[in-house]
Amino acid sequence: MKKLLLATAVAALSVSAAHAAPTVYGNVLLTTDYVDGNLTVKKDGNKLIDEDYSTTQLNSTGSSNLTGSRIGFKGAEALTANTDLVYQLEYGIDVDADQGRNFRSRDTYIGLSNKQYGTLVAGRLSAIDDNINYAGQTVSLYDTYSTGFSVEAADEETADILGVDEGETVKLGLAYWDGNRANNSLAYFSPSYNGLQFMGMYVMEEKNSTDLWTESEAFGAGLKYEPTNQPFRAGATYIKSSDFSTARVSGAFDVNAATTLGALYQVTDLDKDKNENLFTLSGSYAIPATKWKAYAQGDMVKNMSGLDGLDGSRFVVGGKYGFNAATTGHLYTGYSKIEFSEDGSDLDASGFGLGAGLEYKF
């Protein structure tokens, strides 16, 4: 009996050893942010809303693939000499809270990766245009283009200006689309051919309204070019649904070993009055003989959320201090502004922000 138990245990250990253990990875980011701003809404010169606000808060969340606190498990299992099963389970963490946004699903998927034919994954995925943001430098308070102001349509006139129902609260993010995640998604990534890679995606129409503006199925295709030992990178994507489409182009150029310039342009059709247009320009500079990298980023949006005349802008400067390969200190300040004026209706929202924090990657 003892020999049988020993043989069973050895067999179990052998099976376990045959399976590759998943890689545990994560990111812990926590910043202290101070924001001071004003929101004014007028109709024919009469102020409907005139509010000043000031707040200090801890931030640790982020929606993009590159920012925000998270923990994940990923790995690969060889099925044949050329094909692996690949998987990832990644969850967002709110470091300074005990509920709500903790352990929310980020990119979670399972799929197949073939050395010759590429990788196909399915699950909850970031849209393919999130892979070609070569201009983004900001973190935390200015993490994404969706950062903005909230306005409550407390009366009929305010609701009319905002184009919503009375009593509804509207979040005026800088840009409506920002490489959002989508449930029930499939994505394909080709092998890289001399730095050139094709990307494709398909989103099923089943309950994806929480992730995409449209409730219809969506398709997307894109290319990115990242040649080895070259000072430039670039990409372009297009995503289309029945009543929604967005196109993005982005690139970066290393002026020298210390200086990099990046740019992004995006046009989004929300089936409204106008197309939303977003333009970002950024630059970073690694300060010689120090561990500091300084950066600046400017974002301009015309016809926010497809509303004619609703425009926004944001300007951020900051620094990143590399304590070591895993730990980074952050310091930044920024100014945001959203404005609208038409037929006696005026909206003006502006805010100043200042933040500092630490980030640890494992």
TrEMBL record:
Which UniProt keywords are given for this protein, alphabetically ordered? Cell outer membrane, Ion transport, Membrane, Porin, Signal, Transmembrane, Transmembrane beta strand, Transport
Single annotated GO MF: porin activity
Q: What is this protein called?
A: Porin
Entry's localization field: Cell outer membrane
| Membrane topology term | Multi-pass membrane protein
- Cited PANTHER family: MAJOR OUTER MEMBRANE PROTEIN P.IA, PROTEIN YDDL-RELATED
Q: What is one GO cellular-component annotation here? A: pore complex
Q: Which CDD domains match?
A: gram_neg_porins
Q: Subunit info?
A: Homotrimer.
Q: Which residues cross the membrane?
A: none
Q: Tell me the Gene Ontology biological-process terms attached to this UniProt entry.
A: monoatomic ion transmembrane transport
Q: What high-level taxonomic lineage is stated for the organism? A: Bacteria, Pseudomonadati, Pseudomonadota, Gammaproteobacteria, Moraxellales
Porin domain span: 7-339
Where it mainly occurs, coarsely classed, is: membrane
Q: Which InterPro entries match?
A: Gram-neg_bact_OMP, Gram_neg_porin_domain, Porin_dom_sf, Porin_Gram-ve
Ion transport found in the keyword field: yes
Q: Which species is this record about? A: Faucicola osloensis (Moraxella osloensis)
Give the residue range of the signal peptide.
Answer: 1-20
